[in-house]
Design goal:
This protein has about 90 residues and is mostly beta strands. The protein has a single domain, classed as Beta Barrel (OB fold (Dihydrolipoamide Acetyltransferase, E2P)). The chain contains one helix and five strands, in the order αβββββ. A five-stranded mixed beta barrel has the order 1-2-3-5-4. Strand 4 and strand 5 form a beta hairpin. The N and C termini lie far apart (about 50 Å). The mean pLDDT is about 90. It comes from Candidatus Babela massiliensis.
């Protein structure tokens, strides 16, 4: 039975942190590009996710990788995996 848990892959996304004002939570914007079925134009769409950041390590503007897990609240079900690109905003 433990073999099935190892085979299951996590739903992993990458996006930019647009808010870090909440306690242990960051809001991440994920961009998706697709071609319009009728007009053949490349479209961009964005979706925001609330991501659990236990150590509060992600900052505004960082590029982060996160994955889906069990729900922590009504809207928060994603967990921070790692910070891919950090933006240092210290003056």
């Amino acid at each position: 039975m433990s073999e099935n848990k190892e085979i299951k892959t996590k739903f992993v996304l990458t996006g930019e942190v647009i808010s870090d004002k909440m306690d242990k939570t960051v809001v991440v914007r994920v961009e998706r590009t697709f071609m319009h079925p009728r007009y053949q134009k490349i479209m961009r769409s964005f979706k925001k996710y609330k991501v659990h950041d236990e150590n509060e390590s992600a900052r505004l503007g960082d590029i982060v990788e996160f994955y889906e897990g069990r729900p922590l609240s009504k809207t928060k079900y994603m967990y921070l995996s790692r910070i891919l690109k950090s933006t240092d905003l210290s003056h």
